[in-house]
Amino acid sequence: MTTFKSSTKHSCCFEFLAIFLAVFICVFWSVNLRAQPEKLDRIVATVDSYSVTESAVQRRIKFMRLEANQTVNAPVDDVLRQRAIEEEISYELQLRQLARFGGRITSDDVAERLAALSEQNGLTVEEFVDQFKAFNMVQDDVEKLALQTLAEEQLTQRVLIPNVEIRETEIDRYLRLNAASFDQGISEYNLDVIVVRAGEVASSEHRQQLLQVAAEVESELNRGAKFEDIAVAVQRIGGIDVGQLGWRRADDITPELYAVISRRGNKRTVGPAEIDGNLIFARVRDVRSSSGVNLPEVRQFHYAIIILQASNESGLELIQEQLEHIRKNVQDGADFAALAKLHSHDNRTRKKGGDLGWRSEDNLQFDHLEILSNLQVGDVSEVQVQQNTVFLLQLVGIRDANVEERKRSYVRSILRTHKLNNVRLKNLDQLRARAEIEYRTQF
Predict the structure, then answer these.
(1) Domain termination site, one of 383, 400, 417
(2) C-alpha distances in angstroms, 90 versus 24, 86, 148, 152?
(3) 0.70 exceeded by the pTM?
């Protein structure tokens, strides 16, 4: 009897243990399956401490196809993929640079941009996003594209344009050489182009290949081959873009290309025109004459500034407090000019009471324009901080520019556009030279 009881007891224990283990295993595997992490996004490259992922590269390929108007069915070759990786690396570097210069884009900014674009096209946001389905883009992709557009705009305003030097003598020369175009008709050209981007590729071997293609294109054009046949033959070669520019005014064409077009005589095809190492061939479909220059409406601001500078970061808080005290005095009725003469560290403006005179909005620093646009005449701004410098602005007056100043703004815009690409490329080269970029092999 004792033996039976002991056996029964052990048997019950084993059964309980078996049931417990079975239940534990089921629960463990059930929980484990639910807790399985999603597949990790593969890292394609690292840029300093940031990663460029496979999903970001795939999204970049979608953007590139959208820009080239290629559907999702177009194949992805090694050249396209490598170009997408390089563009994504450049974008990451520029985003970090923008943040260092005080740029900031919120989700509300992105939503507002999408809403504005949708309204311009007479669509709801949902209908607008649906337009991108042909390129396999979903709402998140479209939002990322809007974010990129906003970032590029801010980068241009905050970082690039301040580095575009346009001398007043350059504007004077342009006005003198093109005086007739402001009163008489101006030529417009309907253009198709083949752009060989030999100046933008990193590989010397690839550059030589593109230069050889350019030589063959030039030879075929001189032989009398049709421009459209050559365009079809080269359009799938990596580093070559083909497209229609449509109607362009003479003053809206890069000087290098216009110089070739203006010397063409009766020829319909011209080139190559070299711009920053790239070679451009063009076909002139048609020519027409339009009315004189359509001058933009331009505001001018008269304002003054007080600048304080700290020798190091530790002194920044002290000069901020000092300038806050000056600002309060101005609000209480003190004379801004008198305080500028007394306190400002800027030798160029201190003697004039900080007076910067009348300036057209297109000739202002971006941060100054942003501040002044939100002030009423007589108002002073909040204290602004830039690295080890603090400053205060007072809006003295605002007016519409006269015709002569509008002409200068128009010319300034043309010259800036022509120079901006060089500044953009130089800036990107400098960013990449300073960055630690590591490419990861596929696995």
Answers:
(1) 400
(2) 51, 6, 12, 12
(3) no
